[in-house]
Sequence to fold (398 residues):
Amino acid sequence: MAYNIAPLAELINQFERLPSIGKKTAQRLAFYILTQPKERAEAFARALTDAREKIHFCKECQCLTDMEVCPICADSTRDRTTICVVEDPKDILAFERTREYRGIYHVLHGTLSPLDNIGPDQLKIKELMARLADGTVTEVIMATNPTIEGEATASYLSRLIKPMGIRITRLAYGVPVGSDLEYADEVTLARALEGRNDI
Amino acid sequence: MAYNIAPLAELINQFERLPSIGKKTAQRLAFYILTQPKERAEAFARALTDAREKIHFCKECQCLTDMEVCPICADSTRDRTTICVVEDPKDILAFERTREYRGIYHVLHGTLSPLDNIGPDQLKIKELMARLADGTVTEVIMATNPTIEGEATASYLSRLIKPMGIRITRLAYGVPVGSDLEYADEVTLARALEGRNDI
Fold:
């Protein structure tokens, strides 16, 4: 290509390496940056390094925070007897939006996936076991994703935790609120039937 | 939201301000950055500031370059009697890919759009007229987009350039190569009929 500008090619390359950003979008985003005021590009650059430098894992729940302990773990009004185990820090946001859950969390940062070489040592399982050791926690809610890997991870953890005499629960399966039964898949519908409640 | 980290919120905000990136994608991209090695975030940040600092308009054709004059304008083998007028630097890439065009370019950086307050002074029209003044150029190819704004801009420029005695041409309209006539829109098909050639 005759029209080859090294700094532009590098910026396109950086955008392209982001997940879900293809060649065309990367080009469009890079050209967009060039049309913006210099301060805008600098603010973006600063945000990137700042976020990466200041944010790390909460030393208790392993979620992301820019403090030593995240605001949820630091909140003395939260119920420390219940731990909700999630795969990803983003899942905490989903639970917090419900405004129903008052316990604390633990982030695994992934699921067991032998094919991808992700075993128990790659997840924050050691840290979870350490938190359960002092006997404060009486219930662990398994809130991994309802996928094969999520299920496998939940059942692996259950086997690990059961001997400690802690209650282990799993999120209920069923049809999503507001959905149309006509479009529900058969596995979900079967689980909803199985878990039916008296009214 | 209990789970509020200022540097993360700022990074999400920066991603969200990019075109075609919504709230969810911005979140996903920001979280992705946090999972990457520090050097990766720094390289991205550097690419942003580098591109914005080093790249500016070519003083001849107004395309983007990190040199004083872009490689196409600097290339002595290009035909300096023909200028192809495009809206956007990306359009040059499209023409260069054809490997058919050996002339030079001029980038307008937009089209006339009175509703958006974009008049002739906001485009690189003055610069184009200056390049035509010395009499070297014998043909101007209008290669603005085949849209209302593109057409209006082309016809505005034609009226401006005609008195200089320079030949003005417009890209041919017609059905795209490899397309299916069944799906061609009626305007395109009418133009293709109008411009039919003997074989």
Notes: The radius of gyration of chain A is 22 Å.
